[in-house]
Amino acid sequence: MAQRLVLQRLLSLPPRGPLAAHGRAFGISAGRRSTFNVQDGSDFQDRVVNSSKPVVVDFHAQWCGPCKILGPRLEKMVAKQEGKVVMAKVDIDDHTDLAIEYEVSAVPTVLAMKNGDVVDKFVGIKDEDQLEAFLKKLIGA
Question: Which Gene3D superfamilies does the annotation name (predicted)?
Fold first, then answer.
């Protein structure tokens, strides 16, 4: 468990060093940098609530079949937005307090947040057209 948290924290750090400007640090693609795993409540506050960009928050669970379908689909759609929006992934089993605070009663639940406020929400799986419309509404495109 501790090793998993350390690895998650390392993977969620922004790229640094001479290759960072080219998006090649640690071999992380541009799409991957637009998605991060929430580590704890203060991380959520810093990276989601206080974000200058709109944030898609994916509340999911490891045991949830529909989450395993929606997660990669949503990550792909967020990556296509080329940095206009970021995606935070919140495991409800690890962060029950956040799930309760944001009234998550089923997974997957996806929130659209702007300036710290929830502006839209959906529960369940959506197809790519529906996800694109959801993201465009959030971005204001």
Answer: Glutaredoxin (3.40.30.10)
DSSP for 94-115, please give it: T-HHHHHHTT--SSSEEEEEET
Strand order in 109-114's β-sheet? 35-37, 86-91, 55-60, 109-114, 117-123
- The residues assigned a catalytic role are 64, 67
CATH number at residue 43: 3.40.30.10
Query: Distance between CA atoms of 77 and 74, rounded to whole angstroms?
Result: 5
- Say what the pLDDT of residue 140 is: 87
Q: How many helices (H) and strands (E) does the chain have?
A: 6, 5
Cβ(45)–Cβ(97) below 8 Å:
no
pTM for the model stands at 0.77
- How far apart (Å, rounded) are the C-alpha atoms in residues 45 and 121? 19
Q: Convert the pLDDT of each residue in 29-68 to its tens digit.
A: 444 578 999 999 999 999 999 999 999 999 999 999 999 9
Count of domains for the chain: 1
